[in-house]
Specification:
Blueprint: H1 18-40, E1 54-59, E2 65-69, H2 82-89, H3 109-123, E3 138-140, E4 143-145, E5 150-152, H4 156-162
Antiparallel strand pairs: 1-2, 1-3, 4-5
Length: about 170
């Protein structure tokens, strides 16, 4: 049972990046929501109602943020916006296993957060000045597991597209 954010034993650097702190808070919020669903006894196909991990993407051009969790089903190629879709397709077919690792291409929280951010940036009035945010101008938080609030290392697929984590 999740009691408070401070009941977790988290070893964080003294100067944690602001975006990572938002990701930890989001993971904690998801954990509380899942705990409530679990206690109410609502039906779930999975053993645990928790998503595997959560992530936050922030556009450095307009400052928008997108909160996202890992998909539970395989992704469809048509749901990804152009700049990200071409990057994902360079790894292989979206929705199938990658040659770099056993993860399904497009199922991780990182590409889903970026995709959500790209869609959000295109719908705002400020960002109509630029068609799509450049993937280099999108900052990603570290991924965290809501059940335990532990940091999850970026997979080889996401490292190839978004670069290695710098935290």
């Amino acid at each position: 049972m999740v009691k408070s954010l401070y009941s977790f034993k988290i070893s964080l650097p003294l100067e944690i990046h602001k975006l990572n702190w938002h990701a930890i808070q989001y993971a904690f919020f998801i954990a509380l929501e899942c705990e409530k669903i679990w206690r109410l006894g609502l039906k779930s196909k999975r053993k645990y109602p928790y998503p595997p991990c959560v992530n936050i993407a922030q556009c450095l051009d307009c400052g928008n943020m997108a909160y996202c969790k890992t998909l539970l089903s395989n992704p469809f190629p048509s749901r990804f916006h152009y700049p990200l879709k071409s990057q994902l397709q360079s790894l292989g077919k979206i929705g199938s296993n990658s040659s770099l690792c056993n993860n399904v291409i497009g199922k991780c929280s990182e590409p889903n957060a970026v995709n959500k951010l790209i869609g959000y940036c295109n719908s705002t009035t400020f960002s109509r000045l630029h068609s799509y945010p450049n993937l280099n101008n999108i900052q990603l938080s570290a991924s965290y597991r809501p059940r335990t609030l532990e940091w999850i290392e970026r997979c080889p697929n996401c490292s190839k597209i978004f670069g290695n984590e710098t935290y």
